[in-house]
Design goal:
Layout lengths: L1 H8 L4 E4 L10 E4 L2 E8 L2 E5 L5 H11 L17 H22 L4 E9 L5 E2 L4 H6 L3 E9 L3 H16 L7 H12 L24 H13 L15 E4 H16 L5 E11 L10 E10 L5 E5 L11 H14 L5
Antiparallel strand pairs: 1-2, 3-4, 3-8, 5-7, 6-7, 9-10, 10-11
Helix pairs in contact: 2-8, 3-6, 5-6, 5-7
Length: about 325
Amino acid sequence: MLLWRHYDRERGVLSVAFPSPGTGQHWELTSRGWVGLIRVTPELMLALEPRIAIEDLFGMLEMADGLQSFHFLPGLVHGDSLASVYERLAAALAEGVLRRAHQGLYGGYMGHRERLPFVRGRLLLEPGEQQAATLGVLCDYEEHTVDVPDNQILVWTLWCIARSRICGERVQPLLRRALRALQGTVTLVPTAASACVGREYGRLNEDYAPLHALCRFFLEHSGPAHQRGDEAMAPFLVNMARLYEQYVAAWLRQELPTPWTLRVQETVVLRSDADGDAESGVQFSIDLVLYDGDGVAHAVLDTKYRPLERARSADVAQVVAYAQSKGCRRA
């Protein structure tokens, strides 16, 4: 019932069929293109295994999530299950955090405006009568702190992994040690996976880049249920259709020679409505559009993560419509 409520009705991860003559009076669970691990109760975990090899799944995640910069990943993928790979990645993140905590956490200066009994930083002048009516002086000052977003991303990710209870007795203590190394000085702030992207790194925090790449991997595939509370289920889930689309886009961007370019999820308005309002007309969101050096659309590409002996009529109609909307002959 928990799976039906949270992962069928709310998220569309599973199709849950109730016991009936059609199912032989059994519960019947069918994945809707997702793989991963769902902690249903403290005693029960459901594994949605991929059809491809674990190493191939990780290779797609590595390219799509930008994990290539994580220099000690190659030896981590020799696992025979999703749980073992998840554990190895979690251990790698925890070890990286502990190493950085031992060296000293990256910090920054935070501005404060406060009334103090002494002058600190810059004194702010006030009208004489207001200053006489209050004790202390108003000051602007900066204070060095490690409670900055770079570290908040790490502590939130470690907390989410530890709470999922996917990791076993070997890795869970390592996660707790890494959490303790941060929690005394870094605030636990709910953080989205998007916060790990586009960050600026310099000489003092360049080693945070691979750690944040791992954090993005965990946060992006941890589902929307990671909020503070007592909810039983904390999933690790990968949408294979979406992952395959991201993987193909990342691979093409890496391999395309100059001057070819690629646009991902390009929106095209097929027609406007009767009043000429494009927003309420028919729109396409094309997975990939390949452009030549003159900025002319050369081909449209639509990714399908499923075994096909031949293209379905609906798939052909879809890419033909995409190609016509972009004025190109290749799809």
